[in-house]
Amino acid sequence: MSKRPPGQQQQSQHENMAVEDKARGPAAGESEPDDGVTWKHSVASLRNVQRVIRTPNPDNPGYARQKKQGKLWVRERLDLFLDAGTFQEVGSVTGKPLYDEKTGELKEFVPANMIIGSGKVNSRKVYVTADDFSVRGGHADGGIQGKAAFGEALAIKHKVPLVRLLDGSSGGGSVAQYLTIGRTYIPHMAGLGKGLTAMTVIPVVSALLGPVVGLASAKAVVSHFSVMVKGVSQLFAAGPPIVRHATFEELDKEQLGGWEIHGRNGTVDNVATSELDAFRQIRTFLSFLPSSVFTLPPVRSSTDPADRREEELISIIPRRRARAYDIRKLLRLIVDVDAEDSPHGQPTSFFEIGATWGTCMVTGFARLQGRPVGILTSDCTVGGGALDALGSQKAARFINLCELFGVPILNLVDQPGFAIGSAAERAATIRHGASVMAALYYATIPIYTVVVRRAFGVAGGTLSDPDDGTNTRVAWPSGDWGSLPLEGGVEAAYKRQLDSATSPAAREQMLKDLLAQFEDIRDPIRTAHAFGIDEIIDPRDTRPLACEWAVHAYEQTLPLRLRARPPSAGILGYRHKL
């Protein structure tokens, strides 16, 4: 007998339960007789309602639609995401019961379309709010007012991460509700204030597991990390019918808000191949962060030697300056090897955030000697690595995330400058670039800067000099820096002389001769002679030095920083920038 994937195994288990319970009927199980002394009868009635709610009914149109669309049922999601047997539901019998008028037996129960409660992820407590799309598509008229906001308030109170499993409008409005309540109403924040408060105190994560619309779309972006599933989830402020009425555009859900849209524009951080992959990414993300801003990031034991020196690092940067290299390979050679965080591909502790958007920049978490660090660098294969508008947004958002939760940053610099040209100017590149400058300058977390190749112009200065002159900074012998790249700068500085050349060939030769004059002085050792760089290191020593820095940060710097945080920080004294 062939093995089924975990998700299918779980689904089969729930379906088997449904068949058995259907045979017994909705009020299955003999009622506990009321002995007039104990509360056994009441407890039995409670357990019966819980059983009805927690057992899927294949004949229910909402449940059948969920399965037809290839999506997991909400309780299957909770079972697969949380550590086995750890979920403790809050509001387990919230909903609308229908009793038989003659017998008083429970005939039917429509549960609230929001499930909340606590559980554990990698043995650490979290609170979860999960939409049940099978009940009125997650709209408010199928829910119970305030349940989602209460779940978020519990996470804030207990200082543990909040995970949202979004599917539908997550309690957002529906015009059908107007008829039910007999009036319209002025829209309100609908608990978003709790989410904004949570963003300053605890890690907030959102998984988009279906069409996420209206209120749910706002919740998705009011998160520190969000992930959507290819072919399953979409995000939009309003769905295709409303868009058709307002803008006359004929668009399906994928065209309006699929992963190709929001996985590439920065609305959503990561893209997953399945719901199980989304859960894996969330578990990995949370493994790097503390439960709240009041504790240090969790440290793991590591078997990867701190003094590991990779021979490949001495040649990974090409001698030809115009030639590209693989920055992710470079990262893998430095950070901890960790098969647990890399079920696919090469074992590494590096977990990338935002791989499909702002691709000139590379951000994510990794470990050095088991200690979480943020990774900030650029990808020279994308626009030469020049810092553009989306890359700036991604970098600033990530730096602010690390600052909030006290995660030190390993900053590997290869920055040719801001993206230039008409498209870059229309995208307000320098405006967004200033946000990176501010995020780095105001950061109080330890930052270890390694200039691996280029550092030019304002963007290069921003990333290579984050502490404005008092950096913890080294460089590789491949370093190449200045106010302008020499190749373009020489043409600007000697334009008149070059334009006086008698022919294009003569101009080209003159340019080569001028560049040759600068070749010796661009040697980074010349900069080191003037103490313009702290130290030039052998690239193979990068991991040992970075590990030593990380250990010191966790033993000395971060505990002092945590103790200096005022009691009100994260609730009244801090505002997290989205």
From TrEMBL:
Single GO MF annotation: propionyl-CoA carboxylase activity
SUPFAM superfamilies: ClpP/crotonase
Record region (Disordered): 1-39, 49-68
Signal peptide interval: none
Pfam families (alphabetical): Carboxyl_trans
Origin superkingdom: Eukaryota
Ranges for domain CoA carboxyltransferase C-terminal: 305-564
Protein's recorded name: Propionyl-CoA carboxylase
Organism: Lentinus brumalis
